[in-house]
Specification:
Helix 3 crosses helix 4. With 580 residues, this protein is α+β, with helices and mostly antiparallel strands.
Length: 580
């Protein structure tokens, strides 16, 4: 008996169902292939993200130290835990006396922290708001007073923040830790800016596992990379010297109603900076309260100025080193000199008659220093100026150093060379001029100036700064000759400074300020003094600068006494034995 054939409609249904299963199976297979092969990594990472949490481990910023003569270290910058204050306004939503509580909180915070009362009340009044930051870096007293009030909706969180325990001391050297929109906290200005990467270290990370409910599984971290703390920095600054020059600057600023003042103390034999300060200053703990951004600039490396007569030892050393003149070379001073239609005169229009080159420095005779300069060829004089590293950055380890400007030497005009000889028509930074004069103090050699003595990593690895000779513009014999001339300037010139038992070398400068708008010069002056002691074996060289003082005409009156007092302090503090 033969098999009975199924009706065609049944065969069609079976084939349809079979085809449908095959299609569905194919689609499922393709989906599995799509998910597990083609996009395996994407969905694996998504799943992993749901069950894992990556946490950044912050590094501790390196500390900054200064020292004293006994090598004892003191904090200039460190880190400490502060309380930050924030509010959870929704916790106030159901209070019956909500308005009164908000007003009380806003009034209390305004009194304790200075927060604007209306702005604080507005933040606290946001219904359902889960978080409002209010104040960062509460002082201990502020924290205790707010905590004792036990206000609803106010909370505290601890956070490590940068702290400058000596406040304004060496602020221009330090800079501060500020905030950048893209990079977050970042060192700005000074050592904080220059050594940002060294101080910052590197953040670490850990990856922990969580279950579907978001609870930690207790399984040890699947990935852990420890943070690397920043290196500690040890400066060459001496705390007591820094304190003394800070104090001196504030006093002369007030006495002479000056717009600004700067001081630098350097070891001419190594280039180590022992003290560096400028006024007006700022507190890096409260840098946001500074009146303007200009106060953050370090005038010693970022403001070039016409130095005036403290430049004369540079010109004289060039002329003596070249053989153009000797200390005994004479000329007849009539009080004025005509060069290319321009008249050069001495201060107060004085004429000194027959004078030696030593007299030129003693009496700060403009026409005499021009006489010495004109005994040299222009290219020779230009070459000496450049060999003193003027008009270029010295490479000090601070952010923002500027090169100065000696462009007038390029034009070879007689009048430009004449005025440059006595420090006019040339712009240098205080660091550049003290560095140049240090060649006289150090046997003809200029050492590269530096502020960081060493860095020490969190693992204890120590890197010391290498002392380097930067230039040797004059011979040792010339340096010795100029030293004797500068000693004579202190003893016999206008810059009379008496330090019993010691020979002191020095020179004042009183320079008119150029008019940047109309050209020419203003009836305003910058006073400077540069000197070193003991003169024939210097332990330090000092530069003082006073901007637009009032009620005093010459630096011999405003700064020479300050230099004398500071020199006495340094000789006593550093325990330098007397010369005689």
């Amino acid at each position: 008996m033969g098999k009975k054939k199924l009706p065609a409609s049944v065969n069609w249904r079976i084939n349809f169902i079979l085809g449908l299963f095959l299609l569905i199976g194919g689609l499922i297979g393709w989906r599995f292939f799509y998910l597990q092969v083609l996009h395996h990594k994407t969905y694996f990472l998504q799943a992993q993200a749901q069950h894992q949490n990556k946490t950044e481990i912050k590094s501790q910023r390196g500390k900054i130290y200064l020292k004293d003569k006994d090598e004892k270290n003191y904090f200039l910058a460190t880190n400490r835990e502060y309380y930050n204050l924030f509010a959870v306004p929704r916790e106030l939503d159901n209070l019956k006396d909500r308005s009164e509580v908000i007003a009380d909180i806003a009034e209390t915070l305004a009194r304790i922290t200075g927060l604007a009362q209306d702005a604080t009340a507005q933040k606290l009044s946001k219904t359902g708001d889960p978080y409002e930051p209010l104040f960062e870096k509460l002082s201990d007293a502020q924290y205790r007073e707010i905590w004792e009030r036990d206000f609803p909706g106010l909370h505290f969180v601890k956070e490590w923040k940068r702290w400058y325990p000596q406040e304004t001391l060496a602020a221009h050297v330090l800079g501060f830790l500020g905030r950048d929109e893209e990079r977050g906290e970042i060192g700005q200005y000074g050592v904080e800016g220059y050594y940002q990467d060294t101080l910052a270290g590197a953040a670490g990370a850990s990856v922990d596992s969580y279950d579907a409910s978001g609870n930690w599984t207790g399984v040890p971290s699947e990935f852990f990379s420890p943070a690397r703390d920043g290196d500690d920095i040890y400066l060459t600054l001496d705390q007591n010297i820094q304190f003394m020059i800070d104090k001196s600057l504030r006093e002369i600023m007030e006495k002479w109603e000056a717009a600004g003042a700067s001081a630098i103390v350097m070891d001419p034999k190594t280039g180590a900076i022992l003290g560096m300060a400028s006024e007006p200053s700022f507190n890096p703990n409260e840098y946001a309260k500074a009146p303007n951004l200009d106060v953050f600039l370090n005038p010693i490396i970022q403001n070039a100025y016409e130095p005036g007569s403290i430049f004369k030892p540079i010109t004289m050393s060039s002329a003596i080193d070249s053989g153009a003149v000797t200390p005994q070379t004479t000329y007849e001073d009539t009080g004025s000199l005509l060069i290319g239609g321009h008249v050069i005169t001495n201060a107060a229009n004085r004429a000194f008659g027959l004078s030696t080159m030593t007299n030129v420095l003693e009496k700060s005779i403009n026409t005499g220093i021009v006489f010495a300069q004109r005994k040299m060829e222009k290219d020779e004089f230009k070459g000496y100026i450049e060999s003193f590293n003027l008009g270029r950055r010295l490479g000090i380890d601070l952010a923002g150093e500027v090169p100065g400007n000696i462009a007038n030497l390029k034009y070879k005009r007689d009048i430009d060379y004449a005025t440059i000889a006595f420090g006019q028509g040339i712009a240098v930074t205080p660091l550049q001029i003290v560095s140049a004069v240090s060649a006289i103090a150090n046997g003809g050699a200029i050492m590269r100036p530096f502020l960081v003595e060493k860095t020490v990593s969190s693992e204890g690895e120590e890197k010391k700064t290498e002392v380097k000779e930067a230039a040797r513009p004059i011979s040792a014999q010339t340096a010795s000759t100029l030293t004797a001339m500068m000693v004579s300037t202190v003893e016999n010139g206008y810059d009379k400074i008496k330090v019993d038992g010691y020979y002191v070398a020095g020179k004042t400068g009183t320079a008119q300020m150029p008019d940047p708008e109309k050209g020419g010069y203003l009836d305003q002056y910058v006073h400077s003094f540069v000197g070193f002691a003991p003169a024939y074996d210097p332990a330090f060289i000092v530069l003082l600068k006073l901007d637009t003082p009032r009620g005093v005409r010459f630096a011999s009156s405003s700064l020479a006494p300050v230099f004398g007092d500071l020199t006495k302090f340094l000789l006593n503090y550093l325990e330098i034995p007397p010369d005689y």
